[in-house]
């Protein structure tokens, strides 16, 4: 049975800062989302705020208002804050949640369990604090050892040309499309929201000691393959190969021995998110595909983030990419990903 959860977004529900909340609104196998707390959008449906689709998830102005109308086991931090810290405004909301008998699920770098007053309050009321980004203990970490070669099914890395492009959502959609087509598909999560959405296999990339990232990647994929016996595995990407503030992607190709890559790109974004002051520019898909190939994997599809584009403009851009690059270019949110299923069916057949 899913635990019931209230998600707090602090007025940022309609921004990229609330991408954890966005993922949970779109779907989670771990929680039943009973409401969102966001004073800016109180009275609306969270799905309609997100993408115009009613999902019967009400938005409340405060935790006290929500507590009078719904019962929640947990309060989930649904926003990313600057530097991953818990500001005073969020701290007050977390205290209020605990006072209303909700445990805390937190994906920020700043751990709620290390705030003595909140930890003491939770303990006194018998409530659980789950800090998703709390690093594993040294004894629980894995070095890379080559067992990835025992994984015989296709492994698809879902990479992007920047962070905050929707790679996790695309990964989840790919799993759903393949399951709908009758295949056993699994997702390897690499961020806190993937865990919150209920993915069983994975690790938190940015809270893992650098020496162990390749090993944790390999271990998650190998464990998934041995236990779930999937036909295909999709690996959620993080950041991008060229992002100067947090380059990532080589482990997905090299350490995970990726069979192929799906590349997510936003044509309207010219500089890296939150680095608009820095003279570094996002590569075009063709250039990124060439770099990915050098690392050792072919790119079999482009998925287009359509932010700041009209539907007509996005479809035109996708058609141009498809013609230029010779691979399908699709709009995950608008079109779904069923058109990519034959590509992965072929890879599954070839892996037998």
Please characterize this protein's 3D structure.
- Helix content is 35%, strand content 16%.
- It is of the alpha/beta class.
- It has 2 domains: 3-131, NAD(P)-binding Rossmann-like Domain (Rossmann fold, 3-Layer(aba) Sandwich); 140-351, P-loop containing nucleotide triphosphate hydrolases (Rossmann fold), CATH 3.40.50.
- Strands 9-8-10-7-11-12-13 form a 7-stranded parallel β-sheet, sandwiched between helices. Strands 3-2-1-4-5-6 form a 6-stranded parallel β-sheet, with helices on both faces.
- The protein is globular.
Summarize the structure.
It is built from 13 helices and 13 strands.
The low-pLDDT segments are: none
CATH architecture of the largest domain: 3-Layer(aba) Sandwich
**Average pLDDT taken over every residue:** 97
**Helical fraction:** 25-40%
Biggest β-sheet strands, sense, barrel: 7 strands, parallel
């Amino acid at each position: 049975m899913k635990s019931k959860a209230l998600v707090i977004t602090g007025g940022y529900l309609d921004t990229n800062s609330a991408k954890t909340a966005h993922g949970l609104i779109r779907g989670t196998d771990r929680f039943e989302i009973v409401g969102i707390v966001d004073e800016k959008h109180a009275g609306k449906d969270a799905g309609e705020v997100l993408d115009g689709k009613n999902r019967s998830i009400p938005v409340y102005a405060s935790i006290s208002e929500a507590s009078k109308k719904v019962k929640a086991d947990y309060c989930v931090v649904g926003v990313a804050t600057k530097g991953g810290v818990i500001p005073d405004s969020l701290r007050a909301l977390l205290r209020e949640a605990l006072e209303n008998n909700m445990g805390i699920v937190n994906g920020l770098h700043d751990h709620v369990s290390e705030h003595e007053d909140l930890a003491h309050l939770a303990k006194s009321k018998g409530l659980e604090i789950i800090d998703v980004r709390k690093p594993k203990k040294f004894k629980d970490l894995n070095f890379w050892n080559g067992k990835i070669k025992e994984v015989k099914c296709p492994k698809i890395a879902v990479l992007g040309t920047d962070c905050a492009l929707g790679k996790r959502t695309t990964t989840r959609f790919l799993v759903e499309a393949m399951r709908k087509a009758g295949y056993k598909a699994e997702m390897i999560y690499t961020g806190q929201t993937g865990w919150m959405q209920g993915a069983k296999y994975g690790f938190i990339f940015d809270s893992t000691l650098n020496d162990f990232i390749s090993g944790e990647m390999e271990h998650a994929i190998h464990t998934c393959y041995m236990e779930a016996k999937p036909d295909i595995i999709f690996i959620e990407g993080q950041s991008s190969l060229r992002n100067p503030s947090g380059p990532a992607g080589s482990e997905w190709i090299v350490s995970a021995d990726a069979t192929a890559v799906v590349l997510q790109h936003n044509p309207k974004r010219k500089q890296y998110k939150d680095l608009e002051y820095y003279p570094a520019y996002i590569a075009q898909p063709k250039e990124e595909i060439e770099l990915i190939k050098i690392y050792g994997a072919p790119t079999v599809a482009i998925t287009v983030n359509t932010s700041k584009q009209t539907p007509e403009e996005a479809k035109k851009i996708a058609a141009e990419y498809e013609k230029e690059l010779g691979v399908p270019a699709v709009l995950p949110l608008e079109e779904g990903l069923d058109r990519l299923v034959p590509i992965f069916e072929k890879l599954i057949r070839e892996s037998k």
